[in-house]
Amino acid sequence: MINPTTLEFLKDLAENNERDWFESNRPRYEDARQNLIAFTTDLLAKIHKIDPGVSDSLDPKKCVMRIYRDIRFSKNKTPYKNNFGVSIPSHGSKLGGVEYYLQIQPGKSFIAGGYWMPEAEHLKAIRQEIDYNAADLKKVIDEPSFVKLFGDFRKQEQLKTTPKDYTSDNENIDLLKLKSFVVFHQLKDKEVMSAKAVDEVAALCARIYPLNVFLKNAIS
């Protein structure tokens, strides 16, 4: 489970996002990070049983993302993220791409999956797969219990124009215009702090798994 002290640290960090405070509270950060690594270790073992593409040799320390923000091109110059992110690739060891993603943040935790903002070559391949096999994707995303958990898959950011090589009267144009292919499920603080948190997050990943299979097949 996620310890209450981990959420407390993140809450305090959001209110004191500057280097001097962080350095004076580094032991709290290290404890929180170790909590995330332990949680990720347990979660990886369960997800590997659900999705064999998730390598059993993944290093949980590398899955827990850096808390330091890249502020070089950002107007927001706060040096630290207000959350812990965990990226679990659905194939190989490179973070990003088709993945499961866990965010831990007071009041804003969630589990997600799919492919966020695919690179051009992968985006083209996914659109082609949708054009050829949309029924396979719709079987996943339109299943009532899936919609109840993750909402309407089509209500993500879309192109304002019709993508190249397709026409506006394509029966699946709402899917073809998507810029990302992801789902999210919000997690309450009490849920991530529950003794059953790993099992419950893994169960949600099991529901995401068929979407990730479709996307991996598209780009393989």
From TrEMBL:
<dbReference type="Pfam" id="PF09365">
    <property type="entry name" value="DUF2461"/>
</dbReference>
<dbReference type="InterPro" id="IPR012808">
    <property type="entry name" value="CHP02453"/>
</dbReference>
<protein>
    <submittedName>
        <fullName>DUF2461 domain-containing protein</fullName>
    </submittedName>
</protein>
<dbReference type="InterPro" id="IPR015996">
    <property type="entry name" value="UCP028451"/>
</dbReference>
